[in-house]
# Entry
Amino acid sequence: MISAIRSSLTVKKQPLPGDLAIWIFILAELGVFSIFFVSYAFVRLNNLEMFAEGYHHLNRVAGLINTIALITSSYFVVRAVIAIKAGNNKNCVFWLRLALITASIYVGVKGWEYSEAFEAGYSLHTNTFYMFYFLLTFFHFAHVLLGMVILWVVAKKTKQGDYSKEDHSGIESGASYWHMVDLLWIVLFPLVYVIH
Amino acid sequence: MTSVRQATYIWLMLIGATAIAAFLGSIELSGATQTGLWVTLASIVILVIKGQLIVDYFMDLKNVQPIWRLLLSAYCFVIGCFVFLAYYLSLS
# Structure
């Protein structure tokens, strides 16, 4: 943070990865999620017992597995960007596919977590904690699914030769969106699965 | 541009930081109704560090126009401050 402020005072000229439009979209998405995050934290203030009880019913191992899956998937996307910058399309497709496989671990675990919660009788209408839990995590889940579609399209286009060492802005845009999904989970994980 | 070696180190650091955060959460489980102050603070510090690593090395914003890096870096920091403030108010 401090180094970010310090660097903001000195002018550097490396271009923004991907399209400017994706970064504006990312900022808008982060803004929407921030309302959810701050609301969750402050609504908890008036419902301490309810949130503590809800927290104790959550599957924290599932939360940990999902965090590792998303971080690893993001790492594979970084490797894909490095590969395309080196002009290695085949390698780039390999890393993007690996990222998709890792992301599907998240989808599987999250789906299982939801089915467990529904079977136990919890839903959006159970109480305020579960309303926030389902809304917040499902909104993020939807973003993961959208991100997976983007990665799949980018991998397909890379395989077709639509991207190259010189022209790979589409891959960088898709990668930036995917890292945003990861960044959001990095906030969501301690908020919902650690702090209670 | 992030190198392969750099990306791998950052990935391992992120996994390590996640494991520490998960461990901190688990040691608080033994009958405690609320997370301790220091565990909460540590979880938020880990959140901010992880966010900065993702912004700098995964999003590759370390050397772009500084305003973009600042906006993304400030995100985790500001959210972390709000979460801590809400937690702190719940103690009283």
